[in-house]
Amino acid sequence: SYVLTQPPSVSVAPGQTARITCGGNNIGSKSVHWYQQKPGQAPVLVVYDDSDRPSGIPERFSGSNSGNTATLTISRVEAGDEADYYCQVWDSSSDSVVFGGGTKLTVL
Amino acid sequence: EVQLVESGGGLVKPGGSLRLSCAASGFTFSSYSMNWVRQAPGKGLEWVSSISSSSSYIYYADSVKGRFTISRDNAKNSLYLQMNSLRAEDTAVYYCARADRVARIGDCGMDVWGQGTTVTVSS
């Protein structure tokens, strides 16, 4: 089955740029979606189809996808961005949705 | 307001059954595929099952295949998850989530989520 690998944690100072990676075999050929989840809350879609943002999501959130790595980039990080972030793809070979293990973003 | 509200969670013994419901409002439910996603305590998100808008296509995670059944009633704007032969490892918060675009299943994001319902499997 398809596996998505994320770093367990990423730390960044306020105002800096956070980059959260999602690794998978030839992930560049798939559409990657990203979610933000704060403690005790449901996930929120922040990027879909590699780099598109749903309405209401700040432009500070952006995404890219190429080769074996997709990246969620959060510019000008704020304290309110502290959360768990998950990447997600569809694996057509097994007809299944796959989530990455999640990355905890800490704002120093 | 677009909204999903789950219900039906609770405490059940190993081997028991439970039926979860998800009530949708504020959008044309019959146009969207729907998903169940769960999250065990302190763990990450795990996809459980997806169903297309007309129930023509249904997919399950290997971990629940043969034990769980997803269904929907478009007339009642409701999504269901029948869970049988429950195990301790099924303990989780269960979320229902909407596909992020009309008439697409699988290869899309999930843009509307419920608040979740908690299922605890323990003797």
Protein topology:
The complex is a heterodimer of chains A (about 110) and B (about 120).
Chain A: E1 9-12, E2 18-23, E3 33-37, E4 44-47, E5 61-66, E6 69-74, E7 83-91, E8 96-99, E9 103-107
Parallel strand pairs in A: 1-9
Antiparallel strand pairs in A: 2-6, 3-4, 3-7, 5-6, 7-8, 7-9
Chain B: E1 3-7, E2 10-12, E3 18-25, E4 34-39, E5 45-51, E6 58-60, E7 68-73, E8 78-83, E9 92-99, E10 110-113, E11 117-121
Structural class of chain B: mainly beta
Characterize the main sheet of chain B. 7 strands, mixed
- Radius of gyration of chain A equals 13 Å
Percentage of residues in helical conformation of chain A: under 10%
Description:
- Chain A is an all-beta fold.
- Chain A contains no helices and 9 strands.
- Chain A has strands at residues 9-12, 18-23, 33-37, 44-47, 61-66, 69-74, 83-91, 96-99, 103-107.
- Chain A is globular.
- In chain A, 36% of the residues are buried.
- Chain B has 123 residues and is mainly beta.
- In chain B, the strands form 2 sheets. In chain B, strands 2, 4, 5, 6, 9, 10 and 11 form a 7-stranded mixed sheet that branches. Chain B has a 4-stranded antiparallel sheet with strand order 1-3-8-7, with no helix packed on it.
- In chain B, a hairpin with a 4-residue loop joins strand 7 (68-73) and strand 8.
- The relative contact order of chain B is 0.31.
- The mean pLDDT of chain B is 97.
- Chain B has no helices and 11 strands.
- Chain B is globular and about 40 Å long.
- Classes of the chains: A mainly beta (108), B mainly beta (123).
